[in-house]
Write a structure and sequence with these properties.
By secondary structure, this protein is an alpha+beta fold. The chain is built from two helices and five strands. It has a five-stranded mixed sheet, with no helix packed on it. It is globular, with a radius of gyration of 12 Å.
């Protein structure tokens, strides 16, 4: 599957905005991404294993709300990071 990475996380993916990864669930995908790009999972998932409030994750346009959300083999996953500041 294709994973679209927002620019605030490019420092974890060696500057890549798009990666390929095979996974069966959102949790599996994030674990595999973290094995390849250490530290990226913690930027999206908090200590209670919840998606951080400033992160939205979509698979084929549908929002994913939990780490157990299943992913199809050809899914396009988009990670969106909200901007903050004043």
């Amino acid at each position: 599957m294709t994973v679209l990475i927002p620019s605030p996380l490019h420092s974890y993916t060696e500057g890549r905005g798009r990666i390929e990864c095979a996974a069966v669930s959102l949790g599996d995908l994030l674990d595999k991404m973290d094995a390849r790009y250490p530290g990226i999972r913690f930027r999206m998932i908090d200590e209670q294993e919840r998606i951080r409030p400033h992160i939205r994750i979509f698979a084929d346009g549908a929002p994913l709300k939990s780490l157990g959300a299943p992913l199809g083999p050809g899914a396009e996953v988009m990670i969106v990071a909200a901007l903050s500041g004043g």
